[in-house]
Fold this sequence. Notes:
The protein has one helix at 2-18, and strands at 27-32, 48-59, 65-72, 77-78, 81-86, 89-96, 115-120, 125-136, 154-157. It is mostly beta strands. The protein has a six-stranded antiparallel beta sheet, with no helix packed on it. Strands 7-3-9 form a three-stranded antiparallel beta sheet, with no helix packed on it.
Amino acid sequence: MRAAIKLMSLLCCFFALASLEGRAASYCEISSAYVAFGTYDPLGSSRRDTIGSITVTCMGNAGDAVSYSLLLDTMGQQGNYRVMMNGVHQLNYLIFADNGYTQVWGDGNGGSTVVNDSYTMATHQSSRTYPLYGRVLSGQHQAKSGAYVGNVTVTLVF
């Protein structure tokens, strides 16, 4: 009798485990386009602004809760200023999270802003695009003519 009860208990556990359903967790990936400031006049009194974007695409199941943060690296920065290089010559710029150019987008340190978002997925795939606002400040008289290049690493934490 005890053996039969043990066998029944083991079978119940097996069937209970066999009826469990697996479900993959949501995952997200990011993409962005190159941001170009165009021609900058180091002797002029005008700054140079541009707009770019970062897109986050998440895959999973409808009804999944998604929550993440977008951080920009601080490598190559001088204070809050980012640096583009042309050989040994540099041009400083900033990236902002808002169109009022008041929230410097970074990693949350030094007063910088991190972009956060959370939502419930309506379908198996969802994309959201976040604008970034770049600004080269006026008065950088040390800039020499030529192409300046910089890199920004975007980190997605979810």
